[in-house]
């Protein structure tokens, strides 16, 4: 019998349709990690919304969490749709998948404004530096000087979506590699625990149009060059309750523990040099250095205590708007009569 | 001095007194604060029981450009804009010559005495008033001087034509929400100007205002304020918007009245208002909210509608209930941003690429803005589609005399929305539930929203081709079946949207069709035509798709005129398209000059054609 999670569901129950992406596409790997962590965490799919725009990456919500409502919106405008949906029902958990074309070009403005509003959601960017569905044009994250078959050389500098997220006020920014399933899973779990916008810029190679070893978005490059800033472990609140002293095994300076809003913990174990993701200045300078020195740094780049979410800033209570009783949605007859009287 | 005293002052020798039947125009500079003084006059006339309108013909500018405000008082209850105004309050030196030139013979001009000017017309009565001198008597802060200076003409108008001072005082109390300091600052100037006028002016014109009882039980309100209230009473829970003239005050109204929707038990807000980064984001937000189960709306105008086209197509095809207010202004392009128009009919009707048809409501006045304000949400939920409400700048931003709003006569309608229990029952009954299957043969499926705690509640929403199980499909038969169902749904919409308002007498051969803010102009023009022996029936379209009654009305008349405030005659084109064989006798009368429709124009157009017959 298949293994069951806390909800009595098997990993199969977290699957959806078969992928129609190219065999070997990095995006499929990310879909699989989503299925795995949702199963592990015992995520209630009925309360999850899967959101996307347009592009290869945006097709993927059809391939995971079949019991969740999904909205495959229009190109680059997924952020506004999530903003509306989570305002309507603040109890929903939003998992969104976007691409570098979706978020870095046509939807760049929405990407940044969503972050500014701190809409609580997991915002995954499956970043491959290329437009797949339209057959191989450069995206805004493509390497400067890179050459592609039909479109020649890219003469423009890349946009770093993780850096853009940090600058826009995002409270959870990570970069990862679809080939590093362990890290992707830990970051996804942490992102789900975050009460605010969590951006995961995951380099996810396009095996058809952009997988030559000299491309920073390729499998060979990622496998050879990925430099994790830390080893990441995620502990659920249950786990934390069971083992209070989770930092005890490590010496001071060897690990940073971040307590998340829902009581879960992230432990970031030092790999090489010290990196504290709670410093915005360090995040920015590190990303700048990564660009200058062509380093593929992955991990939790930036984290801060979540500031108020959009639902808080627009003054909503805890009751989701969609669950307010219909009888409370219309002021009384007397209220209207009084208003009218005052206008006569 | 009271109104009665004033009447005795009307000199003998002038022509007969003209009571409560005059249009007055105030010319000022934009940004000078004349809205307060003009509203004061409008409100005073309204409180005197005289039917009145107030229309602001203003430039797209913060400060400095000329602006005109027209006020019409009509004992007969006509509240359309009059092309000719008999009284000009010429407070803007830049336009004074033109303002005077536009007066009819026997007109009146009130202007500041300190100007150097030469009298250009013998057939106009002039009153010079000392604006600067009057202000000098008082200690008024320099930043207030321009606005308070407008009270000089209010005082003069009050004495010349008969506006009681106490009503003006009440108006100031109302305007400044009872704050004594600004009330006193303004009122002292009105009083001084009134006093000066009584001592120094001799009334030489026939126009007077006298109290009557024709506004009893009525209210004075803008369409945007009414529409905002309609949304509050319609159970709106999410509004996302981007500021644009002339729709902005609609969202201001929602903000002003959202306190009415505080949950009495928890004190929590049940309304969220988000100012988006642009109109694309605004409609994206409400598409997300509507999909998630909110009653969601936005308010915008033409340029915003252009930006919303892609999302509107998605909401149509993915069948998401949303409400979109288009407070129409004059296009194409940026056009005349502060001038009225009915030019978005065809654009919104077909908004979205591919074969798209949208539902549109067409309110005529603030009362209907309120009614359609709540009804639009019911229709959107019942039809699971975007519902547009096309108001315009004239209704939206100008003060209209209106019947008080009627409380909704039906409870909130959520349409075919399945929750956990009803989904369970549905599946038990039918053995299945598929999102887009046409179980009732009305083109409308049953929907669930995210968060419904049932393992089979979820479905995939997309703008790509899908079958009735909401599964991606590129098959031609699936595509055709879906499009056919959407068309069937549009036919259902035809039966659910507000019916046209029809005044029909079989003895009359001529039919007039119009919609929206043209209504007062049409009615007055009908009376004028009747005086010429031309008798007309009238049908006012209140929604698209067109109800069957429109076709019947057209069939029953020898000649039909379609009157509208746009350049191309868009509604007439739509009639021709919808019923080509029945519309050979339908003629378009379209103006589209940026101003509210006048009875004069409608009268002349129909008269000219009928005389040619």
Report on the structure:
The complex is a heterodimer of chains A (344) and B (613). Chain A is of the alpha/beta class. Chain A has helices at 26-41, 56-59, 78-88, 100-106, 108-117, 161-167, 181-193, 219-225, 237-242, 280-292, 310-313, 333-343, and strands at 48-52, 69-72, 93-99, 121-127, 130-131, 137-138, 147-148, 152-153, 172-177, 197-203, 226-228, 230-235, 255-259, 265-270, 296-303. In chain A, 53% of the residues are buried. Chain B is an alpha/beta fold. Chain B contains 21 helices and 24 strands. In chain B, the strands form 5 sheets. In chain B, strands 10, 11, 12, 13, 14, 15, 16 and 22 form an 8-stranded mixed beta sheet that branches. Chain B has a 6-stranded mixed beta sheet with strand order 3-4-2-5-6-7. The chains are: A alpha/beta (344), B alpha/beta (613). At the A-B interface, strand 2, helix 3, helix 5 and helix 12 of A face strand 9, helix 8, strand 11, helix 10 and helix 12 of B. Strand 2 (69-72) of chain A pairs parallel with strand 18 of chain B, so a sheet runs across the interface.
């Amino acid at each position: 019998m298949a293994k069951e999670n806390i909800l009595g569901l098997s990993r199969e129950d977290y699957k959806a349709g078969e992928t129609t992406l190219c065999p070997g596409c990095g995006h499929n790997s990310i879909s699989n990690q989503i299925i795995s962590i949702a199963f592990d965490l015992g995520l209630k799919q009925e309360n999850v919304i899967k959101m996307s725009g347009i592009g290869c990456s945006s097709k993927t919500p059809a391939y995971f969490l079949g019991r969740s409502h999904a909205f495959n919106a229009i190109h680059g405008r997924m952020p506004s749709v999530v903003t509306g949906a989570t305002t309507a029902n603040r109890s929903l958990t939003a998992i969104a998948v976007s691409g570098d074309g979706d978020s870095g070009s046509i939807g760049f403005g929405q990407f940044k404004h969503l972050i500014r509003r701190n809409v609580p959601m997991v915002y995954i960017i499956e970043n491959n530096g290329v437009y797949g569905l339209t057959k191989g044009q450069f995206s805004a994250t493509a390497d400067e000087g890179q050459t592609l078959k039909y479109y020649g050389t890219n003469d423009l500098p890349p946009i770093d979506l993780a850096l853009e997220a940090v600058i826009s006020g995002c409270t959870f920014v990570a970069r990862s590699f679809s080939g590093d399933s362990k890290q992707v899973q830990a970051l996804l779990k942490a992102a789900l625990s975050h009460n605010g916008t969590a951006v995961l810029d995951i380099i996810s190679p396009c095996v058809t149009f952009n997988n030559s070893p000299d491309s920073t978005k390729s499998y060979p490059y990622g496998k050879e060059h990925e430099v994790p800033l830390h080893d990441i472990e995620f502990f659920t609140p249950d786990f934390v309750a069971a083992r209070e002293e989770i930092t005890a095994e490590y010496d001071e300076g060897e690990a940073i523990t971040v307590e998340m809003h829902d009581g879960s913990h992230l432990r970031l174990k030092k790999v090489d040099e010290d990196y504290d993701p709670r410093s915005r200045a360090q995040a920015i300078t590190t990303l700048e250095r990564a660009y200058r020195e062509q380093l593929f740094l992955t991990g939790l780049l930036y984290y801060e205590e979540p500031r108020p979410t959009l639902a808080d800033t627009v003054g909503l209570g805890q009751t989701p708007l969609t669950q307010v009783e219909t009888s409370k949605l219309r002021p009384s007859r007397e209220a209207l009569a009084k208003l009218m009287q005052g206008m006569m | 001095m009271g109104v009665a005293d004033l009447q005795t002052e009307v000199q003998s020798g002038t022509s007969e007194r003209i009571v409560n039947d005059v249009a007055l125009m105030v010319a000022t500079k934009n940004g000078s604060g004349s809205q307060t003084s003009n509203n004061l006059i409008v409100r005073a006339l309204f409180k005197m029981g005289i039917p009145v309108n107030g229309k602001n013909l203003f430039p797209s500018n913060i400060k400095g450009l000329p602006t005109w405000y027209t006020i019409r008082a009509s004992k007969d209850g006509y509240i359309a804009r009059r092309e000719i105004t008999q009284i000009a309050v010429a407070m803007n030196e830049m336009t004074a010559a033109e303002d005077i030139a536009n007066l009819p013979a026997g007109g009146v001009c009130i202007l500041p005495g300190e100007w150097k000017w030469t009298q250009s017309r013998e057939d106009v009565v002039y009153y010079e008033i000392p604006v600067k001198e009057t202000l000098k008597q008082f200690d008024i802060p320099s930043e207030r001087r321009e606005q308070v200076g407008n009270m000089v003409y209010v005082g003069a108008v009050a004495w010349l034509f008969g506006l009681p001072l106490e009503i003006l005082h009440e108006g100031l109390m109302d305007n400044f929400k009872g704050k004594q300091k600004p009330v006193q600052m303004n009122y002292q100037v009105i009083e001084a100007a009134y006093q000066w006028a009584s001592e120094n002016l001799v009334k030489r014109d026939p126009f007077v205002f006298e109290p009557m009882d024709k506004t009893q039980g009525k209210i004075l309100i803008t369409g945007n304020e009414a529409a905002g209230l309609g949304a509050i009473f319609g159970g709106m829970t999410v509004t996302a918007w981007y500021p644009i003239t002339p729709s902005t005050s609609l969202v201001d109204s929602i903000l002003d009245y959202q306190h009415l929707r505080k949950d009495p038990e928890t004190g929590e807000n049940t309304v969220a208002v988000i100012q988006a980064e642009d109109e694309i984001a605004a409609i994206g937000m409400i598409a997300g909210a509507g999909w998630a189960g909110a009653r969601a709306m936005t308010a915008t105008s033409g340029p915003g509608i252009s930006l919303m086209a892609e999302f509107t197509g998605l909401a149509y095809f993915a069948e998401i209930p949303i409400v979109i207010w288009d407070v129409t202004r004059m296009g194409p392009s940026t056009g005349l941003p502060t001038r009225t128009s009915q030019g978005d009919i065809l654009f919104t009707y077909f908004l979205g690429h591919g074969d798209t048809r949208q539902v549109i409501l067409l309110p005529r006045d603030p009362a209907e803005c309120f009614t359609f304000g709540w009804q639009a949400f019911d229709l959107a939920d019942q039809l699971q589609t975007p519902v547009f409400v096309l108001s315009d700048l004239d209704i939206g931003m100008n003060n209209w005399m209106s019947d008080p709003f009627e409380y909704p006569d039906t409870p909130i309608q959520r349409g075919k929305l399945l929750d956990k229990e009803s989904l369970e029952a549905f599946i038990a009954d039918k053995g299945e539930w598929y999102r887009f299957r046409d179980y009732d043969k009305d083109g409308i499926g049953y929907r669930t929203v995210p968060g419904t705690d049932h393992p089979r509640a979820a479905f995939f929403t997309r703008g790509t081709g899908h079958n009735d199980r909401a599964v991606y499909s590129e098959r031609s038969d699936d595509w055709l079946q879906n499009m056919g169902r959407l068309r069937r749904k549009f036919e259902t919409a035809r039966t659910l949207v507000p019916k046209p308002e029809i005044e029909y007498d079989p003895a009359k051969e001529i039919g007039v069709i119009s919609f929206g803010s043209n209504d007062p102009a049409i009615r007055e023009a009908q009376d004028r035509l009747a005086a010429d022996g031309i008798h007309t029936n009238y049908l006012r379209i209140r929604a698209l798709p067109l109800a069957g009654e429109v076709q019947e009305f057209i069939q029953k008349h020898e000649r039909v005129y379609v009157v509208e405030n746009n350049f191309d005659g868009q509604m007439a084109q739509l009639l021709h398209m919808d019923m080509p064989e029945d519309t050979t006798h339908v003629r378009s009368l379209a103006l589209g000059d940026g101003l509210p429709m006048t009875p004069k124009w409608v009268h002349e157009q129909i008269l000219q054609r009928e005389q040619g017959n």
